[in-house]
Amino acid sequence: MNKVYTGKTKDVYALDNGNYQLKFKDDCTGTDGVFDPGANTVGLQIEGIGRENLKVSVYFFEILKKAGVKTHYVSADIDNATMEVLPAKVFGKGLEVICRYRAVGSFIRRYGAYMESGTPLNAYVETTLKDDDLGDPLITPDGLDAIGVMTLDQYAQMKAMTQKISGIVKDTLAEKGLDLYDIKFEFGYYNGEVILIDEIASGNMRVYKDGEIVEPTDLTKLILG
Ligand SMILES: Nc1ncnc2c1ncn2[C@@H]1O[C@H](COP(=O)(O)OP(=O)(O)OP(=O)(O)O)[C@@H](O)[C@H]1O
Ligand SMILES: [Mg+2]
Question: Which atom of ligand 1 is nearest to the CA of 186?
Answer without folding.
Answer: 31
